[in-house]
Each structure stands twice: as C-alpha cells, then as structure tokens.
Amino acid sequence: MRQSNSMTSVRKPVIVRKFSRDWCAGYATGSLGQNPAELEILDLSGKVLRIAWDEIKWVCFLRDLPAPDSANPERLLHKRFTVRPRTPGLWLRMTLTDGDELEGLAANDRSLIDGPGLLLTPPDTRSNTQRIYIPRSAIQTLEAVSLIGLASRKRIPRPDQPNLFAGDQENS
Predict the structure, then answer these.
(1) Quick one: how far is CA 59 from the chain centroid?
(2) What DSSP state is assigned to residue 155?
C-alpha cells in the first residue's frame, strides 16, 4: 500500500475555523500552505478532510483537542495584547475579511513576505491555542504595531584612540 508524503509526516492537533463560523477538529501536518488549493486534515473519526483555503478563517494548533460540543474550541479569550509583549517578534494587528480583529506575534523573517499565510503566537499563551495560522486570503488589513527585539546589550564605551603619531602632526 502506498501513502502520500503528507500522510507520513507528524500531525498536530488543530481546530480549523471557517468563515461560516463552523469548525472541525483533527490533525494537520506542521507544513501548512504547501498545497495552494486546500488544507488536508485527519478528523477525529479517521477520515481525511480537504478544505479549500478560501473557506478557512484560521487554523489553531492546540495543546489538546476539545470536547466536540464546545462553543469556543480554540479557547481564544484574548484576541489582543493587554500589555506590550515581551517575547521577541513582530507584533501584528490584523482585520480579517469577516471583520474580526486579531493580534499576534510573528517571526521577523522572510515568511512575512513570501509565505502563503502567517503563523502567529496568540496574545494569551496560557490558553489551549499555542499557534494560529492565518491564510493570506483571510486577511483584509495588516498592521505592524511594533518590533519586539531581544534585550539590548549594554555597550561598553570605547576610549578614544590615542594619537599614535603625535610628532608627525606637529611637523606638518
């Protein structure tokens, strides 16, 4: 029996929230956005679901899967930072195409420009959601709020360089 490459990789628990407010739980590969047409997840009953990217609002990577009858399976209680984040990254604020607003920290790398979507760390890292993947088609506006860097090192002041050729300056 032959398996596809996507079936052999490690799968992580996710909640896929659609713009229709419907959601499904399952397991997805860590490499989202590789297939430009659809997302492939393995649902809890063992069926492979394929969902078109233009239907997806976000994909939340979870610590553990919720009960099937949960109204807020992602447990995203805070969608905005209450204080300035301390973790290094690019603090982003976005409005999604359905009008929902969300903030998160993204890695300051080339995936911000080239990638098929954004992988964010949510404001509440203690919730069930560890990371949120938002396809580019779901983003209406995107604003970079701040660049959060590593703690700056104290610079040791350099002493002025001594004049090595003092005699030459006097003669000229």
Answers:
(1) 10
(2) P
Q: How far apart are CA 134 and CA 32, in angstroms?
A: 10
In this prediction, residue 59 carries a pLDDT of 94
What pTM does this model have? Answer: 0.77
Query: How many domains does one find in the chain?
Result: 1
Task: Please tell me the least confidently modeled range out of 71-85, 100-114, 115-129.
Answer: 71-85
Do residues 26 and 16 make contact, with C-beta atoms less than 8 angstroms apart? yes
Q: What is the mean pLDDT of the chain?
A: 82
Residue 122 lies in a domain: yes
The neighbouring-strand residues paired with 40 are 50
Q: How many residues does the chain have?
A: 172
pLDDT above 70 (res 146): yes
Q: DSSP label at 19?
A: T
- Which residues contact residue 120 at a Cβ distance below 8 angstroms, ignoring those fewer than 6 apart? 92, 102, 104, 105, 106, 131, 132, 133, 134
Q: For residue 104, give every residue at least 6 positions away whose Cβ sits within 8 Å of its Cβ, in sequence order, or none.
A: 91, 92, 118, 120, 121, 122, 123, 132
In a domain, 159, yes or no: no
